[in-house]
UniProtKB/TrEMBL annotation:
GO terms for molecular function: ABC-type transporter activity; ATP binding; ATP hydrolysis activity; ATPase-coupled lipid transmembrane transporter activity. Residues 14-294 form the ABC transmembrane type-1 domain. CDD domains: ABCC_MRP_Like. The chain crosses the membrane at residues 51-68, 145-164. The keyword ATP-binding applies. Keywords: ATP-binding, Membrane, Nucleotide-binding, Transmembrane, Transmembrane helix. This is ABC transporter ATP-binding protein. It is a multi-pass membrane protein. The keyword Nucleotide-binding applies. SMART domains: AAA.
Length: 536
């Protein structure tokens, strides 16, 4: 937690400062109240008016700095939440392809939304609450010291009792907080699955099942938080009872001191409130500590990434000069079922290759091996005689573009989906559009390149989505293009246009997966590799 507070130290410090000033004003209010009480008892009108004015001024300061503290706290929490997310984003970028895909998007969404909301409720708000309560306790004790030393002793005893009380429940709250995070992540994964299958349920008239599952998942999301809140409130109730008992003791003590003439009568008006400030401060502090304890599992899940350090520059990789060689490579996702076994291929610069064969024979796997996404293979894959185990996937992707079967498009314009935020000239855009056979589609769209594609390209047809993906690959000017059924959703005319553009580009090394190659199309490739399933 301290790591993130340091990153936002200016806002955090300002928030704490406003809280301290506000509680300082609150202590002055009690001292002024005692002076008013004493002046009234002595029938001193001038003193009564003076201390009333002081009291009102203190109240004004209290409300002013409380408002400033709340405003600043909201801005600080926003900045802290964004800092946590930024750290998560950096950690995602540093994962390998395999590591990133070990968790599904539902889990990542839970970490970016639910977990951060829990941190806000269990860590950030309680932390600033703790600062305020500590200030309340300190100022109240200083006020009591101004009155009589025995009141300070009693307040310290109160503090110790209320400080130690939460330790009885701290471990249980930590375990509940951890369990809450796990259960809510699982529920969000189920919700993602349900929403993904919405069309299927609606098509088969299973709306009732959608409602039943949705309501059950909703309760699964809320139930862990409810259980955590219940346990916290139960423990806070016990601590609250102890607090009340101690406050009654303080009232008896002040009454005794007043009867002995050790403090003025006005102490009855403000002294109890000051001791109450100590007691209530520690009572609140005890509950806030329980919340902070419950937040620990969420912090444990956060990566330790230094986002302030400069990202390591990816060393530029020389373009392919000769060939890519795959020599006796074996790979399996499951040890009992190898996908590739002693497979060898040779891809020369500028030439065009097709990979064919039935499903499950390793065509897509081979492309992912070439991209460096699946490093756990045996054999050798060389990029101009350099073993790709010595090259990072990021370096390989400086030279390669990959078009997969299931094209993903961001919910923005066609232009942004092609350029991915980079600056390209109109000539480069035009060349990519022509090379992907996308020109006719854009001509039929009123907004052209500025057409919004919708969630995952829902406003486009399957063929249009693949043409956008091909344009995206072409404009980024990679010398090697890996295509996994990249023209499968195109009609024959557009497929011919796209493939002709790719096949006639002399600067492009093309490796294309296809289940169906006509004799005429087969003849246009420099070589067609026929893959077959590995036999045991």
């Amino acid at each position: 937690m301290i790591h993130y507070l340091k990153k936002q130290w200016r806002l955090s410090t300002l928030t704490c400062l406003f809280a301290i000033i506000a509680y300082g004003a609150q202590a002055l209010i009690q001292l002024a109240l005692m002076k008013i009480f004493d002046a009234v008892v002595l029938l001193d009108l001038r003193s009564t008016i003076f201390w009333t004015a002081v009291d009102l001024t203190c109240w004004g300061g209290y409300f002013l700095f409380t408002a400033l503290q709340e405003h600043c706290q909201a801005k600080t929490i926003r900045a802290l939440n964004n800092t946590v997310r930024d750290g998560l984003y950096h950690s995602f970028l540093r994962k390998s392809h395999t590591d990133f895909h070990q968790s599904d998007t539902g889990e990542y969404l839970a970490r970016l939304t639910n977990d951060i909301k829990q941190l806000e409720q269990l860590a950030w708000i309680p932390f600033f609450g703790c600062v305020g309560r500590i200030a309340q306790i300190v100022f109240s004790i200083l006020g009591l010291a101004f009155l009589h030393w025995s009141l300070v002793v009693f307040s310290v005893i109160t503090a110790v009792v209320l400080w130690l009380s939460p330790k009885l429940f701290q471990k249980k709250l930590e375990l509940l907080g951890q369990s809450c995070g796990v259960l809510q992540t699982a529920a969000i994964n189920h919700l993602k699955d349900l929403l993904t299958g919405f069309d299927v349920l609606q098509f088969f008239g299973r709306g009732n099942l959608f409602l039943q599952q949705g309501n059950r998942i909703s309760d699964d999301i809320e139930k862990p938080s409810c259980q955590l809140s219940y346990e916290k409130s139960r423990m806070e109730a016990l601590i609250g009872f102890i607090n009340v008992a101690l406050q009654l003791g303080s009232l008896v003590l002040i009454a005794a001191l007043t009867s002995m003439g050790l403090v003025t009568t006005g102490t009855l008006a403000g002294g109890v409130n000051l001791i109450g400030g100590v007691a209530n401060g520690f009572n609140s502090l005890a509950g806030l500590r329980l919340s902070l304890s419950a937040s620990k599992p969420y912090f444990c899940k956060l990566p330790t990434v230094d986002t302030d350090s400069k990202s390591e520059e990816i060393a530029p990789m020389s373009p392919l000069k000769d060939s890519i060689t795959v020599d006796r490579v074996s790979f399996c996702y499951d040890e009992k079922k190898p996908i590739l076994k002693d497979a060898s291929f040779h891809f020369e610069k500028g030439k065009k290759y097709a990979l064919t064969g039935p499903s499950g024979c390793g065509k897509s796997t081979l492309l992912k091996l070439l991209l460096g996404w699946l490093p756990d293979y045996s054999g050798t894959i060389s990029f101009d005689d350099v073993d790709i185990h010595t090259i990072t996937p990021a370096q390989l992707q400086q030279q390669m573009s990959y078009i997969e079967q299931n094209v993903f498009l961001f919910n923005t314009t066609i232009r942004e989906n092609i350029t991915l935020g980079e600056d390209f000239s109109e000539e480069q855009l035009h060349a990519a559009i022509q090379g992907s056979a996308l020109a006719a589609d854009l001509a039929a769209m009123p907004d052209g390149l500025d057409t919004v594609v919708g969630e995952n390209g829902s406003n486009l047809s399957g063929g249009q989505k693949q043409r956008v993906a091909i344009a995206r690959a072409l404009i980024h000017n990679r010398s090697i293009l890996l295509v996994d059924e990249g023209t499968s959703a195109l009609d024959q005319k557009n497929a011919d246009l796209v493939e002709k553009s790719l096949l006639t580009n002399p600067d492009l090394t093309l490796i294309l997966i296809s289940h169906h190659l006509s004799a005429a199309r087969r003849a246009q490739f420099d070589r067609v590799y026929e893959l077959a399933p590995v036999t045991q």
